[in-house]
Design goal:
The complex is a heterotetramer, with two copies of chain A (79 residues), one copy of chain B (246 residues) and one copy of chain C (745 residues). With 79 residues, chain A is of the alpha+beta class. Chain A contains two helices and three strands; from the N terminus they run βαβαβ. Helix content of chain A is 35%, strand content 37%. Chain A is elongated. Helix content of chain B is 24%, strand content 24%. Chain B has eight helices and eleven strands. Chain C has 745 residues and is an alpha+beta fold. In chain C, the strands form five sheets. A seven-stranded mixed beta sheet of chain C has the order 8-10-7-11-9-12-13, sandwiched between helices. Chain C has a seven-stranded mixed beta sheet with strand order 23-25-22-26-24-27-28. The longest helix of chain C is centred in the C-terminal third of the chain and has 21 residues, at 500-520. The termini of chain C are far apart. Classes of the chains: A alpha+beta (79), B alpha/beta (246), C alpha+beta (745). Chains in contact: A-B, A-C, A-D, B-C, B-D, C-D. The interface between B and C is medium-sized, with 35 and 35 residues. The complex binds adenosine-5'-diphosphate (ADP) and magnesium ion. Magnesium ion (MG) is lined by residues 162, 453, 473 of chain C.
């Protein structure tokens, strides 16, 4: 199965990359882009056909390795 | 004094740390390979700079799983002096041996240059030879040195006097314009609650010889080297632990 | 099945195909044709350049390894060797600036540690279009980030370089990277395969479909169709390279290796044939054993892939386990993919079945070699005309100085080198921005100085003289730091050699390099040729870049460009002749690229450099700065910068180059006459310095002194420049940053 | 409206970051994680209530700034 993990900086954490992108976009004339937050995106190929197992595995990996809980939160999608 | 320099795959300031300890300060020093679980009798540990495991995910994120980190943690818990420099600092954060996390530099670029630092605390094994308020000039070289701690954590850190160095102007005044990376409260170095584990973004090992353009990094090594053997182990940190002073 | 279309797709010309048929005695299959096409590409075979390169001086008592190996090597005493080379990654960097530059750095580093040397310093030489032109900033940002991303994480300091902005490079930037390493002379190892039956190992990253036809791409001009070749981009993995570097150096300590070579351009094909050919042997491999990243790869793809961070090595029989164990320690798995044979053939099998078999010789020594037609290009006659009397020189020299100091080519490059880790390894004793990069050699008293230089504008106006000036400048920069120039490497960036005008530029430049290297006793130990640097039929300025390496016997004798104290005498070594041809002044103030470049007297240059080494050795000079781009006024201003505000006051003569006084003043201030250096000297040493100069046959005179907070220059008795040194420094220091000011600070 | 942009390396392009993460995960005992590809993830806040405009804007921005078309491809979700 495949799991997708989205890791984003918590709302309370300043995102310098996102800020830079917004500024750049606005200077290019994209006034309608009000805010940008940049995160990481992982596609995991998992050797399992059980959805529950895949979800558990992805969550464990995200918790332990892919995200740093001090600054980041994550979301998982499995299909 | 016997230095143990922890080498992760991707460490690249390991030789520099060894050279400083052994050749500049005349101490025993040995590499500790990350797959080993033996600290080879080290009295003090340095986690050097570099890009452990490539730092592709987050700086320090993978290194904390290395086998050597278990004995490092045990050593730290016993009060042993541990210094994380640059990537070493990042690893200590990821490993939870120090509080907080690193973000990318405010300007998003890697920066290598000299910065000014004010010594905030002298009761750590790595700043005991310095004087409070002293201004040091030392090189940095990092892309992710923008230290962050959530407000509550930050409050505790400040209340416990865990900030060891801050980025300042040449006169020792904290000034946003002189911060190379946007760290919260201009934090450049930090210690743990017990004060025996210190992480710093600047590179003291790059500032120990006049030929390299400055010797302000010596005070970091002098602090640990001059303390009588074993003193650091049971000494400074323990004495000042809040629980023990209370 | 091989028809005209297939040949064209492979860039193989009909007469070249005839040669292939003759060598093979039969029709090649597609894999074989692919192998020929990359090995006979300009990039790998040097077919247009070889006849000229052969004329370069490559020998001298200091040379341990000349051209032909992965990198050159020179004797630096105490049983040590400096191993160094320069490489271009122009085309990949244009297509994908970050990865192109990064993999360029990765490639040159492999060339150095392949020789058994530990890389200890990097330099880069960059050319872009005008900084304010659309696209330049993004290109620059990404190229610099790519160099930084690779060099920083692998832990090799970038200790210097140069960067020039000029419209000619807008559609074809240049990214040349230089690496230097140190080895024990006895540890130098070569790229040879020998000893029948010895195992051939593959180690490093897995092979994917990246960069297939990269080598042929580097040999084709850009046009609208380049976009289609885009999947040819390779992604660098500095972490993998760091592991390879450490593991290979550890394996080399065991003497279990016969030879080793990295897989660069033309990947497995090039490394197997070159190693076999150097060892007078053959190599047989089975591609099905090659670690692969993707499924269903054909022998053709595997042989031509340019996946990064891969090495090929030949181990001594009986020592295989030792070699494998060391790689395992670093989590790398060395895979035995074949063995050495005695038949001189490259034999490729797939699961035991032969899929290609070609004599090594045909791919290397017997590759085509062209004496391409050449003729002096027409633009030259017109471009070399310069009548200063027709130009109105601006009379405010203060403003002119500030304009030139703010020109991105002259301005401080701190915005760039601040992104490079230039201090890792704790050897850097002359930081970027202070002149030549200088690194001490731990365990000895010595240090090495290195500089890369080139001036495309000069070469455009006179390729021969321009190339000579580049050699002279690089060696002079090294000598200014106190080091004795030892040897050189070169990267030749030119347009399409099939055009006689370009070929003429190339031949003249090589002539000039040869003559200057001979006169200054800096033999060429290696280099790289990058042709077809054109966009839509328009070539870049001919741009040879020269890297020179020099030796300081005592590291602590190192000298930088900065004035040290107030009250020191400012001494001008050499003579100014008000030469403005091809100058930054003409470009910035009159928007002209015209005239003839400054004359170069190689004998005077040699004497000057020898004098600098003497003065540094006797500690008679406190600072030294090469006086070239921007002329004397710019040079003296630069000596004042980063000094905490030491100013200078000096007085010089006007130049007699025009009927107008203002032009004569401008020429004296901003003329770029060669073989000049600004030196600062403690007052009590002035007499000695002048004596040493006289004895060496170098013109020298005191033109002023350091001190105060202003920069004041009188020309022909009249003060024409008078301004705050701080203000001048601000203009110089912030010019490049300002272009990026819209970004978050 | 909000747009989410996922930027991933093209299939043919080598992803050293993903490979390093897989290696690490496997050495931590996560043998079931067979492959990882790492990408970037952006959340854009857009000052528009029209879905079509949001989509167009996000695609333009992704094309121009967020993705590097030479080695990356992207996917957009708007809600
Ligand atoms: N691309 C670059 N990378 C690193 N350092 C650079 C780069 N460009 C310029 N520098 C540094 O800036 C200084 C000035 O460069 P340049 O004007 O070419 O010097 P010079 O006049 O001595 O040839 C040198 O010390 C050089 O090493
Ligand atoms: Mg130069």
């Amino acid at each position: 199965m495949r799991a997708r993990v989205f890791v984003t900086l918590k709302k309370s954490v300043f995102d310098p990359q996102g800020r830079t992108i917004v500024d750049a976009l606005q200077s290019l004339g994209y006034q309608d882009v009000v805010d940008v937050r940049q995160g990481k995106y992982f596609e995991l190929d998992l050797a399992t056909t059980e959805r529950a197992h895949a979800e558990k595995l992805a969550a464990e990996v995200a918790d332990k390795v892919l995200a740093n809980p001090v600054i980041e939160s994550y979301r998982i999608e499995v299909d | 004094m016997r230095f143990g320099i922890v080498v992760f795959p991707g460490s690249n300031c390991d030789e520099d740390a060894l050279y400083a300890a052994r050749d500049v300060f005349g101490q025993d020093a040995e590499y500790l390979w990350h797959k080993d679980a033996d600290l080879k009798g080290a009295d003090v540990l340095i986690l050097p700079g570099g890009f452990a495991h490539g730092d592709y995910l987050r700086t320090g994120a993978m290194a904390r799983f290395s086998p050597i980190m278990a004995p490092v943690r045990a050593f730290a818990e016993r009060g042993g002096p541990v210094l994380g420099i640059c990537n070493g600092f990042q690893i200590l954060l990821e490993a939870g041996l120090l509080p907080g996390a690193m973000l990318r530099n405010r300007g998003l670029k890697y920066r290598c240059e000299h910065v000014y630092l004010r010594v905030e605390q002298t009761d750590t094994p790595f700043t005991s030879a310095a004087t409070a308020g002293q201004v040091l000039k030392m090189p940095i070289g990092h892309g992710e040195g923008n230290y962050f701690a959530p407000p509550e954590m930050l409050k505790t850190i400040e209340a416990n006097h865990q900030v060891v160095l801050r980025y300042t102007d040449p006169q020792g005044r904290v000034d946003e314009a002189w911060s190379p990376n946007g760290s919260v409260n201009a934090i450049a170095a930090l210690c743990n609650d017990a004060r025996n584990v210190v992480g710093m973004m600047p590179h003291p090992e790059r500032a120990c010889e006049a030929l390299l353009g400055g010797v302000d990094g010596r005070v970091i090594f002098d602090s640990i080297v001059r303390s009588p053997k074993g003193f650091a182990l049971q000494g400074i940190g323990r004495r000042l632990q809040p629980s023990q002073t209370a | 099945m091989i028809d005209a279309k297939v040949l064209e797709r492979h860039g193989v010309k009909p007469d070249e195909y005839e040669r292939i048929l003759a060598f093979m005695g039969r029709e090649p299959n597609l894999t074989e044709l692919g192998i020929f096409s990359v090995m006979w590409s300009e990039h790998c075979s040097y077919k247009s350049s070889r006849v000229h390169l052969r004329t370069l001086p490559t020998e001298g008592p200091q040379v341990l390894q000349g051209p032909g190996e992965n990198a050159g090597a020179v004797d630096i005493g105490e049983g040590l060797a400096a191993v160094f080379k320069i490489e271009s990654h122009n085309h990949p960097s244009f297509i994908e600036p970050y990865q192109g530059a990064a993999t360029g750095v990765g490639g040159i580093i492999r060339d150095i540690f392949t020789m058994g040397a530990r890389p200890i310093a990097l330099l880069n030489s960059l050319r872009f279009g005008a900084l304010d032109a659309p696209g330049t900033r993004r290109l620059l940002e990404n190229v610099v980030a790519g160099i930084a991303g690779y060099g920083n994480s692998i832990g090799i300091p970038t200790v210097g370089g140069e960067i020039v902005f000029e419209p000619t490079y807008a559609g074809n930037p240049l990214v040349n990277v230089f690496c230097l390493g140190i080895a024990k002379q006895s540890d130098i190892i070569k790229g040879v395969a020998s000893g029948v039956g010895n195992a051939v190992y593959y180690v490093g990253a897995k092979t994917g479909r990246d960069g297939i036809h990269g080598a042929t791409m580097a040999s084709a001009e850009f046009d609208d169709k380049s976009a289609e070749k885009r999947p040819a981009v390779q992604v660098g993995d500095p972490f993998m390279e760091k592991l390879l570097l450490e593991a290979c150096l550890e394996v080399m300590q065991t003497d279990a290796l016969i030879g080793i070579q990295d897989m660069g351009a033309a990947g497995l094909t090039c490394s197997t044939t070159e190693m076999g050919s150097r060892g007078g042997a053959g190599v047989e491999i089975d591609v099905s054993l090659v670690p692969q990243r993707e499924t269903g790869m054909t022998p053709y793809e595997i042989m031509l892939s340019e996946s990064q961070e891969r090495m090929l090595l030949v181990a001594k029989q009986g020592r295989e386990a030792e070699v494998e164990r060391i790689f395992e320690k670093w989590d790398l798995h060395a895979v035995r993919i074949g063995h050495v044979t005695d038949d001189g053939l490259l034999r490729v099998k797939e699961r035991g079945v032969v899929v290609a078999e070609i004599p090594n010789r045909a791919l290397t020594d017997e590759a085509p070699e062209y004496h391409r037609p050449m003729s002096e290009p027409e633009y030259l006659r017109e471009a070399r005309q310069l009548d200063l009397d027709t130009l109105a020189a601006p009379s405010d020299q203060n403003a002119t100085l500030l304009s030139i100091l703010g020109s991105p080519t002259i301005a401080s490059k701190k915005w760039i080198y601040r992104q490079y880790d230039h201090m890792v390894r704790t050897n850097t004793i002359n930081l970027p921005g202070l002149g030549a990069g200088v690194v001490r050699i731990k365990g000895t008293d010595r240090a090495l100085a290195m500089s890369v230089d080139g001036n495309g504008r000069y070469c455009y106006l006179d390729p021969r003289l321009g190339a000579m000036l580049a050699v002279a400048e690089a060696a002079r920069n090294v000598a200014c730091s106190g080091a004795r120039p030892l040897a050189a490497t070169n990267c030749l960036n030119f347009g399409n050699p099939e055009r006689p005008g370009i070929m003429w530029q190339f031949a003249k430049a090589v002539e000039g390099i040869g003559e200057a290297c001979r006169a200054l006793d800096v033999p060429i130990t290696g280099g790289n040729v990058s042709l077809y640097n054109e966009t839509d039929g328009k070539a870049i300025y001919p741009t040879p870049t020269i890297g020179v390496v020099g030796l300081l016997e005592h590291a602590d004798h190192v000298v930088s460009r900065r004035f040290q104290e107030s009250g020191d005498a400012i001494v001008l070594l050499g003579e100014g002749r008000g030469e403005l041809g091809g100058s930054e002044y003409l470009k910035v103030m009159h928007d002209l690229v015209r005239g003839v470049p400054p004359a170069l007297d190689l004998d005077a240059e040699r004497k000057l450099q020898a004098l600098l080494v003497t003065l540094a050795g006797e500690r008679l000079m406190r600072s030294a700065h090469d006086c070239s781009d921007g002329g004397l006024a710019v040079t003296v201003a630069e000596c004042c910068f980063d000094t905490n505000g030491i100013g200078a006051e000096l007085s010089i003569e006007g130049a007699g180059v025009s009927r107008e006084v203002t032009m004569n003043t401008a020429a004296a201030l901003f003329g770029e006459s060669a073989s000049r250096v600004i030196v600062s000297v403690v007052p009590e040493h002035v007499t000695t310095v002048l004596q040493r100069a006289a004895a060496a046959g170098v013109p020298a005179r005191v033109i002023g002194q350091t001190g105060g907070s202003r920069l004041r220059i009188a020309v022909a008795g009249e003060i024409v420049i008078d301004q705050s040194a701080d203000e001048a420094e601000r203009v110089w220091a912030t010019s490049i940053d300002k272009h990026f000011a819209h970004r978050v600070a």
